């Protein structure tokens, strides 16, 4: 088919100048579109970013606690939190400043973030509350978003006090050789009988059934994911006292209403978090105390 090949070659040769002109234009158009797709920061966001840097909020102890940052041996920081959905900056696990900047930017957006799939103001209510205190957000330029899920969740507790609960050691379970620690959210008007209906804040490893010999090995070397949860207190009593016959010690904490709310706000945030669980180090007591 020599005639067909020669015709195709002639057609390609005639189109080559047109393609050489259009191709750069298409590339420029795509680049311009990608740049314009990301809205530039508003003047008020720029102002907040500058204020936060001037106040060195990324170096504040409160910010490091909220993000669970720990100082590295040779400088810098790394968060002990291991779920990528907990960070709003790609480098947020190791860069407190980048995470602070990304958090402020995300507060202006209704985009759903984190494992809980909510706007950042609602997914990370403790961060938002702390930054409001530090930067005094203008509610006109940065309107607070309604966080109905969080408000319903926190109202269900009717929290008036917090109790630290310590079930004693249980030698038949390697994970409980040092006991366990969790918090109980005590309600207004609670009695010794009704406290069983209170909720707890619990941190524990997510262990699949029938782990066998892998259980202690993975537990020692951080092979399990640890997560926070809220479960009724009567389930914990049933597990520790009725089934395992363990002593349970209770210590009422001296928290005021503001501290209780702040604790619950961070507990809500930790629904987006997970941690590598180590039996002898990063265990229940480590993260709660």
Describe this structure in words.
With about 290 residues, the protein is of the alpha+beta class. It folds into 2 domains: about 45-145, no CATH class; about 155-289, no CATH class. It has helices at about 1-35, 45-55, 60-65, 95-105, 120-125, 125-135, 150-155, 215-220, 235-245, 255-270, 285-289; strands spanning about 70, 75-80, 110-115, 120, 160-165, 180-185, 200-205, 225-230, 250-255, 275. The strands form 3 sheets. Strands 9-5-6-7-8-10 form a 6-stranded antiparallel beta sheet. A two-stranded antiparallel sheet has the order 1-2. Residues about 1-15, about 15-20 and about 20-40 have low confidence and may be disordered.
Low-confidence segments? 1-13, 15-19, 21-38
Q: How many structural domains does the protein architecture include?
A: 2
Number of helical runs?
11
The side-by-side strand order for the widest beta sheet comes to 9-5-6-7-8-10
Tell me the radius of gyration: 27 Å
Shape: globular
Structural class: alpha+beta
- The proportion of residues forming helix, as a percent range, comes to 40-55%
Main sheet makeup: 6 strands, antiparallel
The chain-level mean pLDDT equals: 85
- Say how many strands there are: 10
Order of helices and strands: HHHEEHEEHHHEEEHEHEHEH
Strand content is 15-25%
CA-to-CA gap between the ends? 82 Å
How would you concisely characterize the structure shown here?
With 289 residues, this protein is an alpha+beta fold. 43% of the residues lie in helices and 18% in strands.
């Amino acid at each position: 088919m020599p005639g067909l090949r020669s015709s195709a070659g002639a057609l390609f040769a005639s189109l080559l100048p047109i393609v050489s002109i259009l191709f750069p234009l298409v590339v420029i158009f795509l680049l311009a579109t990608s740049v314009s797709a990301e809205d530039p920061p508003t003047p008020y966001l720029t102002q907040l970013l500058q204020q936060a840097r001037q106040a060195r909020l990324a170096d504040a102890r409160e910010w490091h606690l909220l993000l669970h940052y720990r100082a590295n041996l040779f400088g810098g920081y790394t968060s002990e939190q291991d779920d990528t959905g907990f960070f709003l900056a790609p480098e947020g696990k190791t860069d407190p400043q980048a995470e602070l900047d990304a958090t402020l930017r995300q507060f202006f957006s209704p985009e759903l973030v984190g494992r809980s799939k909510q706007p950042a103001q609602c997914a990370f209510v403790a961060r938002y509350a702390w930054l409001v205190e530090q930067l005094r957000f203008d509610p006109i330029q940065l309107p607070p978003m309604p966080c109905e899920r969080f408000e319903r969740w926190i109202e269900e507790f009717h929290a008036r006090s917090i109790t630290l609960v310590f079930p004693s050691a249980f030698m038949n379970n390697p994970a409980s050789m040092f006991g366990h620690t969790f918090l109980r959210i005590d309600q207004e008007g609670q009695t010794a009988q009704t406290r069983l209906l209170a909720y707890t804040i619990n941190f524990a490893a997510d262990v699949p059934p029938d782990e066998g010999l892998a259980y202690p090995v993975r537990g020692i070397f951080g092979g399990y994911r640890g997560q926070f949860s809220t479960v009724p207190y009567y389930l914990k009593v049933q597990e520790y006292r009725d089934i395992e016959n363990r002593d349970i010690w209770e210590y009422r904490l001296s928290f005021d209403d503001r501290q209780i709310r702040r604790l619950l706000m961070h507990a809500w945030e930790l629904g987006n978090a997970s941690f590598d669980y180590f039996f002898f180090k990063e265990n229940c007591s480590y993260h709660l105390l």
